[in-house]
Amino acid sequence: MLALRQIEQLGHVAGGSLAHPTDATSASHAVAVSMAEGPAARLRLVDALANEPALGQHYLLPTVRGDLLVNLGRHAETQAELVRAASLTRNDRERELLLVRARVAAAAAIS
Known about the structure:
Blueprint: H1 2-13, H2 23-37, H3 39-49, H4 53-56, H5 60-71, H6 75-88, H7 92-110
Helix pairs in contact: 1-2, 2-3, 3-5, 5-6, 6-7
């Protein structure tokens, strides 16, 4: 909880607030919430970031969602997010890694 309070304070110092945070503060806040409250809480924060124009079509957002969903045991959803992330990245190596992770999630979903 200390890290979460520190991130909240940082947001205020940086000129943002949790009501109007900067992108960096939002991301850091999501990480701190996850550490303090677990992946379900972080997933709610990441889902809220999906509406941000700068992040909505970036491959890292579905990648993070996939990481959180796998931690929650939601493997079919993990697979879908990682396939989506692979379709959004321009980096061939990153795309292949994401597709491998998606196949692993698919195998876990049917196990």
